[in-house]
């Protein structure tokens, strides 16, 4: 039982790390602001979320897990809201999304 | 393992420092400064200084970033081209850096238990705190009880900073914002978070005896809750919740409360800021005194942070 929980927790932690890495690569590689936002939101929700759930499994039934659950709750709300606010601010300051590949023009 | 974390964090600190120097956009610099503070907070966690880390995260990464962004929006967000050659500043920085590195050669080894800082009064504090003060968090007992004079000085400095900002920038009452239909998502989430942030601030304030936290951190977190409200709903609506004249009174009330606890000690036959006489049992008196002065610190810090924020933002038209 203990080993199962350990293996599950490590799968989640490594999965979270992979998603964080994907997000970071996306921020560097994507062509414009809106697509980069798309990459960042993966870090915030899936990356950090999986890491937090993995840590909860490490913590077991304790106060630490309750605190991690609260952090999880905060991340799930604050991440998408921040990205939404950024996108809206960009739209309002008339930043046009990139609609086709600049190389093909 | 811990060394590896140290090296990674210090490396990231250095990269951030260089990025700050190279960057021309002041908005980006403000965000990078926030990242710098967050990295320092992580370093403090590695060093087991959780109280300092909490302060650094709340003040350095949180509120000072907001104040810097407010300043940038008041002025310009592009750095001016330098008017002189960088040779003289480079020489000054090189000489200062070399002197500092020369100074570190004399410092005790990293984590050395025989270092002078661990030999002087620290061992007395660690040894006497359980019997004399009876709070598990020694940082709080040093800050609020053994070094109560220093902390009173610090709170007075914060109060003076708030008074200085008021004297320099003044304040314009602006009470226009009423509900509009924009920013719906942001407002719903801000409404959801606002009470939780205030609750967390109170937890940090009253849990300071047992875990990391205390008046300074709690005050800043409390102020951050109202700043979030002001960011989402506009300054005018925030002033309906907590008006500016009230803040000015609260800033003074916190400091006076701290000093009054000290004077109460004299009136009850002890010394200034001696908490032991506040109750029949010295340890209970210490608990009461620490709680009251932490409350005073929290009130002043929260009020001054909001005064500074209001002063900055109310100047933008």
Mean pLDDT of chain B: 87
Query: How does the helix and strand content of chain B classify structurally?
Result: mainly alpha
Q: What's the number of extended β-strand segments of chain A? A: 0
Give the total of domains of chain B.
Answer: 2
**How many helix segments of chain A?**
3
Estimated helix fraction of chain A: over 70%
Number of helices of chain B: 13
Number of strands of chain B: 0
Q: In angstroms, what separates the terminal alpha carbons of chain A?
A: 59 Å
Which protein chains make the most extensive interface, counting residues with beta carbons within 8 Å of the other chain's beta carbons?
A-B, 7 and 6 residues
SS-based structural class of chain A? mainly alpha
Question: What's the story with the biggest beta sheet of chain A?
Answer: none
Broad shape of chain A: elongated
Q: Can you tell me the residue ranges of chain B where pLDDT is under 50 for at least 5 consecutive residues?
A: none
Q: Share of helix among residues of chain B?
A: over 70%
Contiguous runs where pLDDT drops below 50 for at least 5 residues of chain A: none
Q: Report on the biggest sheet of chain B.
A: none
Strand content of chain A is under 5%
Sketch the topology of chain B as an H/E string, one letter per element.
HHHHHHHHHHHHH
Task: Name the features.
heterodimer; A: 105 residues; mainly alpha; 3 helices; B: 317 residues; Four Helix Bundle (Hemerythrin (Met), subunit A)
